[in-house]
Amino acid sequence: MEPIFLTQSQARKIILNAAGLARKAQFGEGIEAVYQVIDHLGFVQLDTNYVVERAHHHVMAARIPDYQTEWLAELGEDGRIFEYFTSDAGYLPIRDFKYSLPVKEAFANHGKPLTPAETRMMKVALDRVEREGPLMVSDFDDDRLEASTGWWDWRPAKVALERLYLEGQLMISRTKTFQKVYNLPLNLVSPETDLTMPAKEEFARYIIRRTLGALGIAYLKELKWRARRVKGNLVKTELEQMIADGEVQIVSIDGLKSAQLYMLSNQNIDIELAKDVFILSPFDILNVFRHRLKDFFDFDYQIECFVPAAKRKYGYFSLPVLCGDVFIARMDAKADRKQKVLIIHNLHFEPIEIDQITIEKFIQALKAFVLFNQCRNIIFRKSNNETYLEAVNKGFLA
Known about the structure:
14 helices, 14 strands, globular, five-stranded mixed sheet
């Protein structure tokens, strides 16, 4: 099949529409919109960082103006979504449950070898959940024999519970304070849910369709990333067959010299953007693959909480700010929830001209972000553009 040729502008619009960022409320409002976002993207990454509101809530609030943080838990309690560690930890629609089974099988068969003590602890933990019902790590005695050496130095009970979760013998729900509760799958998955192990070909095609549906346009490495935990997966083989069958289209983008790109053949390429302003999470689907931002948006972005302090350029938790198909700024933000103040340690504007309409949209997005983070006010500590900063400040005082 001959490749389809797109302009860079067309490619950006396809990517943003696939991400649900073509306009505000692209999926509507209310709790049903939350489900529609998850069902469309197929996966919403979960993160525990609480400098500003957690990533999974941030992703929803950026797309759903009236979003309430308890809605994710309600969808889980209703059995419409579930949490699992497929490519990363995140929320998935329950109709995709069967496609988590190859990943669980991979963890069971190819995970880190367990010691006899860890195997015994897994049996004890599973037995307790079966007899006593849902449990948390705190429900187990502190069985650590040596002092902790860091975040990932889990005590044996935690190791056992997490391994049972990864292998699919337990599932996770969350408390209001975001702590994990381990439960049996039969208590969280309805009898109507398809539990059939998909064939390797079916699993690969699921990965391809889901990834292209969420990314719009993708490289092979992104398609393979979603299936990386399943060794010997058939993503590359099935991709070639889907191209031959006409379901997937090879894409060539004007002025972009890079590896081969792909999109679904039924992809709409006539897309209009509302030019709304979005303050995005670093773990938003648009931002998780850094090379895509550079290739398609000429935006060199890196979340710097994993970078040593002395080497940070923009700040610990810098949030990308998007207007239409252009990144206009990034801001290092922290919510001081006790003082009810959103602190912007660094508001760095990109080297582009920003008109007054965009500034006003940015102000409205900031006001919504302040309230979303349970704050009432905002403080700007530093900016690289005093003119724009003054305009933003005036907008808050007006």
